[in-house]
Design a protein that fits this description.
- The structure holds two protein chains of two kinds.
- Chain A is about 60% helix and about 10% strand.
- By secondary structure, chain A is mainly alpha-helical.
- Chain A has two domains: about 60 residues, no CATH class; about 90 residues, no CATH class.
- Chain A has a three-stranded antiparallel β-sheet with strand order 3-4-5. A two-stranded parallel ribbon of chain A has the order 1-2.
- In chain A, about 35% of the residues are buried.
- By secondary structure, chain B is α+β, with helices and mostly antiparallel strands.
- Chain B folds into two domains: about 45 residues, Pemi-like Protein 1, Chain: D (Ribbon), CATH 2.10.260; about 30 residues.
- Chain B has four helices and two strands; from the N terminus they run H-E-E-H-H-H.
- Chain B is extended.
- The relative contact order of chain B is 0.06.
- The chains are: A mainly alpha, B alpha+beta.
- The interface between A and B is large, with 58 and 50 residues.
Chain lengths: ~160, ~110
């Protein structure tokens, strides 16, 4: 979305991924209660040019890491996810919204088709591993769920 | 909405009539074909609501400022742009777990 705004300011056409990201973001914003970003994304946006980044930061909440987020991310790497992808997927279950005191998200939206396909393909095994982990955590963690992983293209197909 | 289009022997594609009507296209209207590593985009030049709302909130001075900043961003090398987005990468190692928070109990 950031880069889409940069292209607009330059009066240049956006790239395919920029259009997919910006259009799906606009659609999701109309139906989701809250839009979340990871702490890493929030920190990066805070360092980028304010005129492009500030509205995105204002529209979204940065999730904090609940305890055991990284433990789950390490387990996800056993399913051949990179550590970068694993931590984002782990935010989907262990990402904490300190304002609403809720944890996890309904869906992670990505432009990465291969990530979404891989997650879908291994979902049964991932769910089994997730349930095995959660059952051994304190009772407050029993509410945690796995998120859906949807591509921006899939979001646009719903519009 | 996504449509699958088929390229004919002359390299032409036909946009379905319902899309033509929905987008308000007329014969002679110009579309931009954007080619990039991810694929091809037939682009009408429209802007999504969120991006448009942001742009419309900017006054003339802010738009000029945005253009200056955008030029500066575009002039960053690919390496600098990647480095900018990859900074502060989050570790998944046990040693990094000290910033994790307990879940609220209520």
């Amino acid at each position: 979305m950031y880069e889409r705004r940069v292209r607009l300011a330059l009066a240049k056409p956006p790239t395919v991924l920029q259009v997919e990201a910006a259009n799906s973001y606009a659609h999701i914003a109309t139906i989701a209660n809250h839009l979340y970003i990871t702490e890493q994304t929030a920190n990066i946006l805070k360092r980028r040019t304010e005129i492009f980044a500030a509205p995105i930061l204002a529209d979204t909440r940065a999730l904090k890491k609940a305890r055991y987020l990284r433990r789950w991310a390490r387990r996800l790497t056993d399913f051949a996810f990179s550590s970068e992808d694993a931590i984002v997927l782990a935010y989907g279950s262990f990402g904490l919204d300190v304002e609403s005191k809720t944890v996890g998200v309904d869906a992670i939206i990505t432009t990465d088709i291969r990530l979404a396909e891989h997650y879908e393909r291994r979902h049964g095994e991932i769910k089994h591993r997730f349930d095995d982990m959660i059952v051994n955590l304190p009772e407050t963690y029993a509410v945690l769920r796995l998120p859906q992983v949807l591509t921006t293209a899939a979001i646009l197909a719903m519009v | 909405m996504m449509e699958k289009l088929t390229v004919d022997a002359e390299g032409k594609i036909v946009i379905p009539p319902e899309v033509i009507q929905k987008r308000g296209l007329h014969p002679g209207d110009e579309l931009t074909l954007v080619e990039s590593a991810e694929g091809l985009l037939v682009y009408q030049g429209g802007v999504d609501e969120k991006t448009l709302a942001w742009w419309n909130r900017l006054d003339d001075r802010q738009r000029l400022l945005a253009e200056d900043y955008a030029l500066r961003d575009e002039n960053l090398s690919e390496h600098e742009q990647d480095a900018s987005w990859n900074q502060e990468a989050e570790s998944i190692e046990i040693e990094a777990e000290s910033d994790e928070l307990d879940l609220p109990t209520n």
